[in-house]
Each structure stands twice: as C-alpha cells, then as structure tokens.
Specification:
The protein has 16 helices and 14 strands. With 413 residues, the chain is of the alpha/beta class. The protein folds into 2 domains: 152 residues, Enolase-like, domain 1 (2-Layer Sandwich), CATH 3.30.390.10; 215 residues, Enolase-like C-terminal domain (TIM Barrel, Alpha-Beta Barrel), CATH 3.20.20.
Length: 413
Amino acid sequence: MATDSPGCRTPHSSSVLESSMTIQRLDLFHVDLPLRSRVKHASHDRISSDSLIARITLEDGTTGYGEGVPRLYVTGETIATTFESLQVFDVAKHVGRPSDYAEVVNRLEALEFPETAADPRGMAGNAAHCALEMAVLDAYGRRFSKSYGDAVRLVKVCGVSTSSKPTRVRYSGAITAASFRKEIYSAARMWLYGFRQIKVKVGVPGQDDVARLRALRKVVSRKVDLRIDANESWTPEETVERVKELLPFHPSVLEQPVPHAKIEELASLRPEIGMPIMLDESLCGYPDAVHAIEHHSADLFNVRLSKCGGLIASLRIIGLAMRSGIGLQLGCHPGETGLLSAAGRHFASNVRGFQYVEGSYDAHILERNVTTGNMTFGYGGLAPPLLGPGLGVEVDLSALDAMTKNRLEICYE
C-alpha cells in the first residue's frame, strides 16, 4: 500500500519546526507500469516496466519522490538489489540537518554508495542512487522553495555550461522495432507532428533494416535527422557491413553497435563505419567515460539519469565529455514515469550542449502514470520548462498504490 504507515508517523506541529530539516523516513516502492504497446529492441522486449520509486519524508512532514529504472542488462541491478542497497545505506546520517538547498546539494556531492565505489565501471547501484538523490532533492526543494533545476546549477563541474534560467526543450522522437505498418504510421505521425530528430531501432533478428530505413526515410524526408540504435546487436566483424547497407539512407549517428565486451574494437572500426558512434550500454559510470575517451571508442555519449547514477554523477560525466570534445545525448529508459520525465526536463532545460534529448514520452508509452498532469511533449517535440519547487510534479497516491507490487519502509532515528 502507498499510504503512510502507522508505525512511522510524521509530526506536523510547529514545535518541530527548528528540527524539521532531518530525514525521518524512506519508503521504497516496486512499481509495475503497464505500457500502451510492446516496446521492442535488440536487447529486450517488454509490455510493462518495473520502476523503483523512493519517497523521502522530512520531520516536518514534507515529502519528496524519486525514481530509478533498474535493468539487469544495463547496470546489473534489479528491484531486489536496489531495495537491499538502500536498506543498509543511512541517508539521514549522510544528509544530516542542512540549513539551505545549497548545503543539501553539497552533502549529496559527497555521498557515495560503497558498491559504486568498488565497481570498476562505477555503475553498481546507479538506479538506486538516482532514485534516492532525486527524492532528497525533491523533498528539500519543496522545503526550501527551490527546484531540481536549481540543483543542476548549484553543482559546479568543469566543462558543464548551464543556462541563466530554464529554457524550453526540444525532444527527439523514437521508433521501436514494431511491425512494418506500425513503424510507417509512427514515422508519418512524427513527420506531421514536426519532429526534427528521430531514432530508429535496428539489429532486431528477423527484421530487414535496409527495407525499413528506405521506407522510413521516404516518409520523413531528408530534412529529418534520422539516427539508428543497434542496442549491442552486432559483432565487430559484421558492423561495418551492416552499416554500409544503411548509409544510402543517411543515418546521422550509430548508437551502441557492439556488446560492451567488444567495445575496445570500435577504435579501429570507427574510421570504416562512416558515421559518429554513440555509446549507451557501455556508458554507465564515470570510469566507463574515462575508458571510452582513452581508447577512442566513441564520438558521443548517451547519458541517462537512472543509468548514470543521478543528477550529480551525470553532470560529472557530461563535464568530462565536454572537456574531451565528446558529443552528448540526454537519454531515457522506455517506461519512465512522470518523475524521471520531470527530472530529465529540468536537466535538459538547464544544461547546455545536448545534441539530442529523449524523454517525456509519458502519454505515448504509459497506460497509467504515477504523477498527475501531463508531462508529454507537444508539437515538434517541444516542451516548456517546469515551474514550482522540487520536481514540479505531484504524485497520484491512488495510482502509486494500485501499481505497487512491493514496498519497504525504512525509519531513521
């Protein structure tokens, strides 16, 4: 159930005002989100999406929510592992009693999960870390009347450029590996809807990518930036030949063509491939970014908040990319709720330099959301910056309750 537990009540009287800055409780929810249609690519096929929702409650009753999307085939996480790591991590002790929002951000910058630090790729616990960090920033943002976007600007990372005030965002469209008829229909809708950028999934067994891209290019014309994502589906030996067949349709970027275990071979393949290479599954933590730059295996990074460990960890990767001349995409996980959509909106509204932005697909993908209102982008993929404290969105408790499969409550003294 998503309602407050009688075993861990929150005081609301004015007598606790001076001590209301500490975290009293952390609630974790395993949420199973039904999707409007099957989401299919070379790495996975799903009709629902599992998310970790974290809720922070301060001593004065202020609450904040965060989300992580644990994927075993991305960061090695499951809902169970996120529950385990957050259960033993004392976030109240680490955050303490901050006096303002800047102090909250400073303490989060010093926060590190032991499993993340011990992981050579720096990705263990990233979805859990993202959910927890977001919930803390949402709760204290509401308490101090600051937004998640303010946190973006408060984190100072060399190479990261932020806007003086939030700007509108232009999102990219995405075509998953559905039936040929559905793909043509999706492409036509995106073209009519004014999208300038579209990503197409390729490399799915049994599908003719040449025929697909030929048809899709005819629908959207040469004016649309059409990039392709292979989701680790090709071997290094076949990548050049696969790409060669698709070059006549002028794809702009090739995302994650080979499995992570073969990523170092991209250095020698890049001159032959004929288009920029973007890393996704091979870009999950800061050490991944360092490795890619040192081995010359990528032209762009796909940074996703949940995959990369949240706001602060993502900014550190972005700063390294900017200093190294690496292009950037702000990505998302299919099936994210309005919470991650809101965090992504704040991020994209305040950080400069993204070549592509994905996210806010809410109404197009989710059968039901955990947030009220509509975070979905508008015509041309355009969306306004979010206003209000914290994430700027509200949670629908009845929806959260209906989709919760399991819950864990952690109280702090």
